[in-house]
Amino acid sequence: MSRDNQPLRTKKRRAAGLGVSILAIGLLAGCEGGDFSLPFGAKDGASAPRSTSTKLVERDVEAPEVFSATDEGLWDGRPSLGGVWVAHPDVTEPERVIVRNEANGKFVIGALFRRERELPGPKLQISSDAAAALGILAGAPAPLNVTALRREESAAPEGSFEAENTGDATSAIAAPAPVTATALEPAATAPAKAAASTTPTAAAPVPAAQKPASPAAGAKLSKPFVQLGIFSVEANATRTAKQMRGAGMVPTVKESSINNKPFWRVVIGPATSQSELDSLLKKVKAEGFTDAYAVSN
């Protein structure tokens, strides 16, 4: 090999050695602070932000400002229709209530109606189903507390961990949005403007997409359903629903709970007009449920 080629080989070896040195310095910089990471890889243990989801929860909450009474309650011993109910002379409109027997701590969900003031006996009159649920004997007054209930809709997070990290997850998801929008805006805007100037009919599909949906059945009525009764025993609610089907109506049994205690409501509807609602009420009362009344759901 000639001597003329030796300087060239020497230069190549020096260049290779310099490249190795630079790579080593970069790797050591990555290790600084004890956190080694490759420039082209993700850190071990990194995880994608957890998504959060929110659901609407309906529940009954006590509303003493609507109605609340503590007095003696009495069951006269006669069987009654309509499931669990209580009557009080100060009631103006039917309500859903929670009734507590303060003597034994039992409670039940039922309907509240108005009773005539001139009737003898305690102010609170209860049905046979209410008496059975509260442990009250016929003709034996018991101290009762009656409080109105209101349906409340609230937002509840799916999990506590996700709720605590909602801010981080949202920011992590939203961060790439400006970059994507900036990159796509010139390409998307130009054709849109050109189409708008040259083709006036391009916007025609927009009104069709924004056409409001047809109103749901009963949307014009604030209370399109007829409630027959509230039951603490599911079998009684099912039996009442069966009776309504036999009379040519279509009932629905709705299950709810409060304080982990279930109850069942039997409703018919929704009615699409006031005349239809009045007709449903008339049919229901003809079946013996004279205390049936209109409800919102």
What does this structure look like?
With 297 residues, the chain is an alpha+beta fold. It has eight helices and eleven strands. The strands form two sheets. Strands 2-6-3-5-4-7 form a six-stranded mixed β-barrel. The chain has a four-stranded antiparallel sheet with strand order 9-10-8-11, covered by helices on one side. A hairpin with a 5-residue loop joins strand 4 (95-101) and strand 5. The longest helix is centred in the first third of the chain and has 26 residues, at 6-31. The chain is globular and about 110 Å long.
Gross morphology is globular
Q: Uncertain spans, ≥5 residues at pLDDT below 50?
A: 33-43, 159-185, 187-204, 209-218
What is the oligomeric state here?
A: single chain
**How are the strands of the largest sheet arranged?**
2-6-3-5-4-7
DSSP strand count:
11
First-to-last CA distance: 100 Å
Mean model confidence by pLDDT? 75
What tags apply to this protein structure?
six-stranded mixed barrel; globular; four-stranded antiparallel β-sheet; single chain; 34% helix; alpha+beta; 8 helices
Topology:
Elements: H1 6-31, E1 54-62, E2 68-74, E3 85-88, E4 95-101, E5 107-114, E6 124-126, H2 128-134, E7 142-157, H3 160-164, H4 166-174, H5 177-198, H6 205-209, E8 225-231, H7 234-246, E9 251-258, E10 261-268, H8 274-286, E11 293-295
Parallel strand pairs: 2-6, 3-5
Antiparallel strand pairs: 1-7, 2-7, 3-6, 4-5, 4-7, 8-10, 8-11, 9-10
InterPro entries: Cell_div_SPOR-domain (IPR052521), SPOR-like_dom (IPR007730), SPOR-like_sf (IPR036680)
Domain SPOR: 218-297
Protein name: Cell division protein FtsN
